[in-house]
Amino acid sequence: MLGNEPLYQLALATSAASTFKGSGGRYIDMKLFWQHSIYCALLARLIYKQYVSKDAEILFIIGLLHNIGRLIILELVPDVAASALITVNEGQFPWQREIEVTGISCADIGAALLNKWNFPKNYCKVN
Known about the structure:
Layout: H1 4-19, H2 30-51, H3 57-65, H4 68-76, H5 78-86, H6 94-102, H7 106-116
């Protein structure tokens, strides 16, 4: 029903969930992280189906993986990432603090991963 490409991407998304179980768990609640991701995925698919097209499974996958960069940075440099994620200054967006502390945003990291996994280029863009 999904087709080969969305099925492949769903398999990648599922394996991503089991890959990131290390250092990040010290700083964020992994259960809440994945609940939030699933809610975003369901909402993205619902909005897309309602207003754009019936073929919305790719939006579910993108919604599910929208914060994957956060897990990557927590896995690679947990203490630095925690500083960026926990200590957002007043009037500052979290992504601004990420760039200030690490030199890159979690969105950029996630986009690079999706690009490496051969997701369509328009799903790997950060605006």
